[in-house]
Amino acid sequence: MKRQAKIEIWVGAFVLMSILALVMIAFQVSNFSSFKEKPSYQVSALFDNIGGLKVRAPVKISGVVIGRVTNITVDPRSFKARVSMKIDKTYNDLPMDSSASILTSGLLGDQYVGIDIGGEEEVLKNGSEIELTQSALVLENLISQFLVKFSDSGDK
Predict the structure, then answer these.
(1) Over 98-152, what HEC string results?
(2) Which residue of 35, 84, 117, 146 is 20 to 30 Å from 94, comparing CA positions?
(3) How far apart are CA 58 and CA 85, in angstroms?
């Protein structure tokens, strides 16, 4: 009976470690990078089209994640999409004339906000708005433009 109890304890420990490993993998996959909130500041930008951008999508500079999208709403004045982002305080020296683009990871991957650095001396602060934006490229629009141009060239 003692040998049976040892085996059951080892199996229980293995199952517990497996469950903990699965929980950690789930947190990594779901974009939870840490359990505590890092100091950050809020900026926003207006886009004509955000494509498939989602809340919690990364904000990147040169491929490095510097923040996350926190909210997506429609601006009541311009009827454009207002994307609010939290940027880590370690990147508090981004120039005011920086631009934001909605980019895609790979051909059909998730979308994220890419920041291109400007050259102005004044920097973005909490509540600032990024003026220069480039909307998402929608694959359906590109295909329809290609088909229209392809059909026009075939008539001549």
Answers:
(1) CEEEEEECCCCCCEEEEEECCCCCCECCCCEEECEEECCCCHHHHHHHHHHHHHH
(2) 35
(3) 9
